[in-house]
Amino acid sequence: MLSASFSATLRVRLADRPGAFADLARAVADAAGSLDAIDLVRVEGGSKIRDVTVLAQDAEHLQRIVDAVRALPGIEVEHVSDRTFLMHLGGKIQVVGKTPLRTRDDLSMAYTPGVARISEAIAADPQSVWNLTIKGNTVAVVSDGTAVLGLGDIGPEAALPVMEGKALLFKEFADIDAFPLCLATKEPDEIVATVTAVAPVFGGINLEDISAPRCFEVEARLREALDIPVFHDDQHGTAVVVLAALVNALRVVGKRLEDVKIVVTGVGAAGTAATRILQAAGAQRVVGCDRRGALYAGRPDLVGVKLAFAAETNPEREEGPPDDVLAGADVFLGLSRPGAVTVEGIRSMADGAIVLAMANPTPEVRPEELAGFAAVIATGRSDYPNQINNVLAFPGIFRGALDVRATEITEEMKLAAAHAIAAVVAPEELGPEYIVPSVFNRDVVPAVASAVAEAAERGGVARRRREPVVAD
């Protein structure tokens, strides 16, 4: 699938003769690429300088396209600009002042001596920090770089572009100021101590890309230590959007959550959290699978999180590989790896099968292979219908939590968020290829924020009531 993620702009010098550009276009097409944009830069004597943007499937494919153009007689490739790298030059976020400093008076109020009065006011009334500083609208995006996307343990520096991207999403979708904190430690004690030490600056903590099982301990300890929301997005953001998608998918096929059998592959951070929220919403029959097959009470090799997972799921103590336990199942939830289940396994599911294959970038089983026998299919990819993307959840969840200055994010707040996301898809719009709204649907964040804030107030974790939103 061609993607802007693997696109480049080639500055080319072409001989000013009929057919020169047609040769270039043909070379791109022959290399299975696509022309995305063509701009004339200037004309010099007998040459035309053009910027030609091409789309590819991956980095190797992009290089093949460039090589094909370079091989053409009469065409010189002056330079190649990878558009994704260009976007990241100098980083994707910046700190911008809200108050202009144009005069001596401005400076004296924003900084010394006037700022001393603000510090004294906060010292006398610590709660005023929410109004008088950035705390009330600021989230820390914290990672140790050990479980970044599908890349694994790549370290804090390499994780920084991802955390910058997360901060950019916070700002774009929920107008929350977020800042990346990539930590040069993998020790839970040091992570907890560091985040606790910087917490006075922030109204919430978003944990990101910390590998299991350490992520469970880090989140639990920080939730205990801090009086602001701590949210591990890889666990709970994923879980919220999974529940939203499944609520609507079940409406499409006319089934109830309480009645269906759900098979989950991958019982790490995301799989565990998704299972728990599904159970909290009413699911009764969940069977989790790891690489060794179904988890069940009494399986001799289980320890820690998996031991607890087995005790709380698989009431019929089914055994065997995922394909075996898929027989007769209503829902497949993949949070694992490509090939975790087979097409034959999916074929053995009940009528009206729902397949949420979320391994990225390659799903557990490709949607093209399921046409005709899976009723609803969703993935984590943007180039298929029904993308299950965490950006549907975390901006609105934190917006709602910050609006009421919540002390934590409760299970009720997560459930409220999931149902709010699902409700954005109107009944008349709902269908097999539209079970979750677009990430660019601007109705999502306000709906989620309102539902989360109300749940926080009902649950007694709100410091204040949310101000009503006035329509423009």
Percentage of residues in helical conformation: 25-40%
Largest sheet: 6 strands, mixed
Strand percentage lies at: 15-25%
Quaternary structure: single chain
- The number of strands is 14
Strand order in the sheet with the most strands: 11-10-9-12-13-14
Mean of all residue-level pLDDT scores = 94
The rounded distance between the terminal residues' Cα atoms is 40 Å
Low-confidence stretches: none
* Category by helix and strand content: alpha/beta
Overall shape: it is: globular
User: Rounded to an integer, what's the Rg over CA atoms?
Assistant: 26 Å
Q: Counting H and I runs of at least 4 residues, what is the number of helices?
A: 17
How would the blueprint of this fold be written?
Layout: E1 3-15, H1 20-30, E2 34-44, E3 47-56, H2 59-70, E4 75-82, H3 83-88, H4 104-110, H5 115-124, H6 129-132, E5 138-143, H7 155-174, E6 177-182, H8 188-198, E7 204-207, H9 214-225, E8 230-232, H10 233-253, E9 261-265, H11 269-280, E10 285-290, E11 293-294, H12 304-312, H13 322-325, E12 331-334, H14 343-347, E13 354-357, E14 376-379, H15 394-403, H16 411-424, H17 444-458
Parallel strand pairs: 5-6, 5-7, 7-8, 9-10, 9-12, 12-13, 13-14
Antiparallel strand pairs: 1-3, 1-4, 2-3, 10-11
Helix pairs in contact: 7-15, 8-9, 10-11, 10-16, 15-17, 16-17
